[in-house]
Design goal:
Blueprint: E1 2-3, E2 6-7, H1 15-31, H2 36-79, E3 84-89, E4 94-97, H3 99-105, H4 109-112, H5 123-138, E5 144-150, E6 159-167, E7 173-180, H6 182-204, E8 208-212, E9 218-221, H7 223-229, H8 233-237, H9 247-250, H10 253-263, E10 265-273, E11 279-291, E12 294-303, H11 305-317, H12 319-326, E13 331-339, E14 345-353, H13 355-361, H14 365-368, H15 373-376, H16 385-394, E15 398-404, E16 409-418, E17 422-429, H17 431-453, E18 457-461, E19 467-470, H18 472-478, H19 482-485, E20 497-498, H20 511-518, E21 522-530, E22 537-548, E23 554-563, H21 565-632
Antiparallel strand pairs: 1-2, 3-4, 3-7, 5-6, 6-7, 8-9, 8-12, 10-11, 11-12, 13-14, 13-17, 15-16, 16-17, 18-19, 18-23, 20-21, 21-22, 22-23
Length: 633
């Protein structure tokens, strides 16, 4: 057998085998003559056998201890598992259960055995559990899973459990794992309720709602949309949002979609066209959403026909004030202060305002007129009540700049007393200006950081050549501290510049003076810098330009310079090497000329020495031809 990874072999013979072996030995002893050796063997063998038995007994004891330890280990794992474990018979009788399983049922572990598991299943789920149990014992060795509502003794509320079971080899019992899934069920129920709630809101909303993709194809719509435009649901589902616009409004659709993509939310007014061809003035609030896993747009469309009629009537009755308001770039509003019994201001009511007020705040007259400030602005207290009512106490107007968190905007507001219990506000939206100022501050911080970390030295001069500012690299290259450089002018004796020929640079050739004189940018001027208390020269490449004000005068001069000392030194080394190479070429050329002259003299001597024998040979050849011409033919 194998216990806890250790193999133990059975070595003890049975009683019958021991008896047979003993009889065989006894018969052999009877047949053999009794000798002293036989006697000693008879004594020795029982002793050996006794030792073997003792060893086998120790092995059996150790095997039993190991088996008990493994049994305790698996018993702990089984009993203290976070999942309920059950062993069930075909009829659902509980044969075994762990502590978690008994705890789920609300019964002590010893008292739950031999009870049917189905008694702990709520009546509505018992049929499903019975079907599940049948499948477990008829489906081979495959796992079966079901979800049922369980009853727990001692608890008033039932709980939901997931049961996973597999039969044993004999298909007489099955091993089931039971997990409490009540939290998951509650979450699913809340999700279903939430979906149902939003579905009811969607279907019963007082405004038409369209869900459409970014190409305009309508994906969903509510009954109000059908009522508002006169189409059936099926007809709208086969249309695009552009088809519900008037022909004049279709041209703006692409631009609105692009603005919506940039902002994520867009409110605009348009004109829809009823199925009968009549226009329907509409205010659209569009927002980017995700619909069934895909990007989409939800447009809430409010019929503002009645509001338009009211606005028209109001404009006719207030033509004078309207003309005044429309000629103002600021938003103007008139307010009535509300006092408590002790005469202290507690709120104010919005009585009137101009069109610019609506545009700046993005509200309508219906939303604001005759509304208390707390209701109109949806704040627990009237915004800036003490500041707005101060002119009533002092009789003098006031001014302030504020940030209004509910609208996320900055305003510049002037307050003036109006009547006995009222005040007027004249304001502008300065959000963009504030954002620009913030952006400018950030930009200045970024460029300041960039300036500090640039490899190039940067110096900014005033028109009188005095230094306004510089970065650390400029101080390092010029050999002066920031304090020493500030305010220095070009004429200051601290400057010691030289040109590429190591000639001191004239004052008028200083970069800042050239820029002031010529008023043209400097590109790649090379000069050397003798730094104070240092013997070496720093070579730099200088660029610069002037900044002009609105009148065309120079307001600042910006000069940048890079350290090119190593490059200048390398160029000097190259020039030196080139000079050495040229000298070597001259010397080698002279040597070659001497060698060529020697070769010419040698060639002349050799050709003279060879010419005399050749003439003799030629003369003898002619004599032979004359004497033996006929014989040689």
């Amino acid at each position: 057998m194998t216990i806890n990874g250790v193999s133990y072999e059975k070595t003890n013979p049975s009683k019958a085998e021991l008896r047979q072996q003993a009889e065989e030995k006894l018969s052999k002893l009877k047949k053999s003559p009794a000798t002293e050796a036989n006697s000693r063997r008879l004594v020795h063998e029982p002793q050996m056998h006794q030792i073997e038995l003792e060893m086998q007994n120790e092995e059996l004891i150790q095997a039993r201890l190991d088996a008990e330890a493994v049994h305790r280990q698996f018993t702990d794992l089984y009993d203290f598992a976070p999942i309920g474990y059950f062993t069930l018979t075909r009829d659902g009788t509980i044969q075994q259960v762990n502590l978690r399983g008994a705890d789920l049922l609300g019964v002590k572990m010893g008292k739950v055995l031999q009870h049917r598991f189905g008694l702990f299943v709520s009546p509505p789920s018992r049929s499903a559990f019975s079907t599940f149990l049948e499948k477990v014992f008829s489906a081979g060795v495959e796992n079966q899973t079901c979800e049922v509502e369980m009853l727990s003794r001692g608890k008033t509320e039932a709980f939901w459990a997931q049961i996973t079971a597999v039969p044993d080899d004999a298909h007489e019992t099955c091993h089931a794992m039971v997990t409490d899934i009540s939290e998951r069920k509650r979450a699913q129920e809340k999700l279903r309720e939430s979906e149902e709630k939003y579905r009811l809101i969607f279907e019963n909303a007082g405004d038409a709602i369209f869900i459409h993709d970014r190409q305009g194809l309508i994906l969903a719509t509510n009954p109000k949309a059908c009522e508002q435009l006169g189409y059936t649901h099926a007809e709208l589902m086969s249309m695009t949002v552009e088809q519900v616009d008037t022909p004049e409004e279709v041209q703006y659709a692409s631009a609105r979609i692009m603005r919506l993509m940039d902002q994520g939310y867009l409110v605009f007014e348009t004109i829809h066209q009823h199925k009968d061809g009549s226009p329907v003035p509409t205010e659209v609030s569009a927002r980017l959403i995700t619909w069934e896993g895909q990007p989409a747009i939800m447009s809430i469309c409010r019929d503002i026909t009645e509001r338009k009629h009211v606005d028209d009537a109001l404009r006719e009755s207030e033509e004078r004030m309207r003309s005044l308001y429309e000629n103002m770039a600021e938003g103007v509003a008139l307010h009535e202060v509300i006092f408590d019994e002790s005469g202290q201001p507690v709120n104010y009511r919005i009585l009137d305002f101009n069109l610019q007020y609506q545009k700046i705040l993005g509200v309508t007259r219906k939303d604001m007129i005759e509304k208390l400030a707390t209701d109109a602005y949806r704040t627990p207290e009237a915004p800036y009540l003490m500041e707005f009512t101060e002119p009533l106490r002092t009789g003098r107007g006031s001014h302030m700049e504020v940030y209004f968190p509910p609208m996320k905007k900055h305003f510049d507001i002037s307050i003036a007393p109006w009547g006995e219990k009222g005040f007027a506000t004249i304001f502008t939206d300065i959000t963009e200006r504030k954002q620009a100022e913030a952006s400018l501050r950030k930009s200045e911080e970024r460029y300041s950081s960039l300036l500090v970390n640039l490899e190039a030295g940067i110096v900014v001069h005033a028109p009188d050549t005095s230094i306004i500012m510089n970065n650390p690299r400029a101080s390092e290259l010029l050999g002066l501290s920031d304090e020493q450089m500030k305010g220095k002018e070009a004429i200051d004796p601290a400057w010691d510049f030289v040109d590429t020929e190591h000639t001191p640079l004239a004052l008028q050739d200083y970069p800042v003076n050239r820029l002031i004189t010529n008023r043209k940018p400097i590109l790649d001027q090379t000069l050397g810098i003798h730094r104070p208390n240092k013997s070496d020269i720093v070579w730099v490449r200088v660029n610069g330009f002037s900044i002009f004000d609105s009148t065309g005068d120079i307001s600042e001069i910006v000069i940048s310079f890079f350290d090119i000392t190593k490059r200048i030194q390398a160029e000097g080394d190259i020039r030196k090497l080139n000079a050495e190479l040229e000298q070597r070429v001259i010397e080698r050329t002279a040597q070659l000329e001497i060698t060529n002259k020697e070769l010419e003299a040698f060639s002349y001597s050799v050709s003279h020495d060879l010419r005399a024998p050749l003439r003799g040979i030629d003369g003898w050849s002619q004599a032979l031809l004359e004497d033996y011409r006929d014989k040689l033919r």
